[in-house]
Design goal:
428 residues, alpha/beta, Rossmann fold, 2 domains, 7-stranded mixed beta sheet, 4-stranded mixed beta sheet, 18 helices
């Protein structure tokens, strides 16, 4: 049994790190610590403690106690709140505790990478088998129906064009780049994004006169480069903010006559195209609608056409275990989002379309570098983020999101793929 108690702005001596005040109206579940009973906190401390003791981490608590085998440092400033949140909300509570400033890490990515590398065995097998009992279920309101998708997309991509401009490069590309080598310099990010886009356009054989459908416009860089090749582009987005800026960029580049950007769900697409490109959009589709998504690709593609798809992926077994669980990322960053596995993608293509997987190329290390550059620039632009009206809790949320994602790729828990799907031309 749990109730909720308000979290004061600070609980420590003047010499201790201050836990930040939180706007209770904007962040109700961060501002209020769940009041967990002593048994709940004790079980949480026991389970978490048992996991941490076996990891190459050093976890230091406010009372001076430590856990772990040594490695990246995690400082738990408020153990009672930390274990109460984890005991009542699991990994959502872990992320909310960071947002509240109840724990921190000097090298957040390294700490999270260690946790991600052991994600499969952090929870004891007997508790894993009871996951359906203790894990929160995804809310029905986040289903990716046509209306639900519009709401889910808007919550992330309509935050502010100015916010994304602060940490993305000048191409405004919000997906993995492809670098020539590591570590990557920030000044090379735009070129690496163009390299990624050009690889996709080459896979799809986009050239002069190609009728191209893009599912997921972003801020329009791929459409710009396709138009520069002489293609006629129809690009679909559900983000009003992105569409407005993308249209402006098309006009400024002189491609307004070659690029149509429609505020349209992929299920509402019409027409037939020589090529289709979709970059990291499938993660917003949801498992329930993967068959419809791939059927749409098949239906919109002309015989002999090609689909170039970029997708973040996770191991199939982990996807099956977590696909119905409500996660911190879904609650605060990508509502309705679900990362597929390569197995799930290829099964959907095989079972629901006449398409064939011709090429698959993974390059997760490149996404880790992309995220590092975004995270560092986001941190460097903290004052500008605040000037846009985003508070400290939001900044900690996004720092955690970018670091958490980078850790996923550095640990190998996540990967990113470029696919080529082909459609046989019966006339040949």
């Amino acid at each position: 049994m749990t109730t909720v108690e308000p979290r004061p702005a600070a609980r420590h001596r003047a010499s201790d790190p201050v836990i930040l005040p939180v706007d209770a109206e904007r962040w109700p579940d961060v501002a209020a610590v769940p009041r967990a009973s002593w048994p709940v906190r004790a079980v949480s401390a026991s389970v978490v403690g048992r996991a941490l003791r076996r990891l190459p981490l050093r976890v230091r608590f406010a009372d001076g106690g430590t856990l772990g085998l040594g490695g990246p440092l995690i400082e738990v400033r408020d153990p009672k709140a930390f274990f109460s949140r984890i005991g009542t909300r699991g990994l959502i509570g872990f992320g909310e505790s960071y947002m509240a400033g109840e724990w921190d890490a000097p090298d957040l990515v390294s700490a999270l990478t260690t946790l991600a590398a052991h994600a499969a065995d952090l929870i004891p097998p007997r508790l894993q088998r009871l996951r359906g009992v203790w894990a929160q279920r995804q809310p029905g309101a986040q289903r990716n129906t046509p209306d639900g998708s519009r709401t889910n997309i808007s919550r992330h991509y309509d935050l502010s064009n100015d916010l994304f401009t602060l940490f993305l490069d000048e191409t405004l590309s919000y997906s993995s780049a492809v670098f020539r080598g590591f570590p990557a310099d920030r000044s090379l990010l735009a070129a690496a994004q163009h390299r990624k886009i050009d690889r996709l356009l080459d896979l799809a054989e986009v050239r002069e006169g190609t009728r191209l459908l893009e599912i997921g416009t972003g801020w329009g860089e791929l459409a710009l480069r396709a138009a520069a090749r002489g293609a006629h582009v129809t690009s679909l987005t559900l983000s009003r903010e992105q569409r407005e800026l993308a249209l402006q960029r098309m006009r400024e580049a002189g491609y307004a006559d070659r690029v149509s950007i429609e505020l349209c769900d992929y299920r509402e697409a019409r027409g037939t195209y020589d090529a289709i490109v979709s970059v990291e959009m499938i993660e917003a589709v949801g498992a329930e609608f993967w068959p419809v998504y791939f059927q749409t690709l098949d239906e919109r593609l002309a015989p002999g056409g090609r689909v170039a798809l970029q997708a973040i992926t996770m191991p199939h077994e982990r996807m099956l275990v977590s696909r119905d669980t409500y996660t911190w990322i879904q609650k605060y960053v990508f509502p309705g989002g679900l990362i597929p596995s390569t197995t799930a993608i290829e099964q959907a293509v095989r079972d629901h379309t006449g398409l064939a997987v011709a090429v698959r190329d993974g390059f997760g290390a490149h996404y880790a570098e992309t995220l590092r550059l975004w995270r560092e620039r986001f941190t460097d632009q903290a004052d500008e983020v605040a000037a846009l009206g985003f508070d400290e809790t939001f900044c900690r949320l996004w720092t955690f999101y970018l670091a958490y994602s980078e850790a996923g790729f550095r640990s190998g828990y996540l990967d990113v793929q470029q696919y080529l799907l082909t459609k046989e031309n019966p006339a040949r």
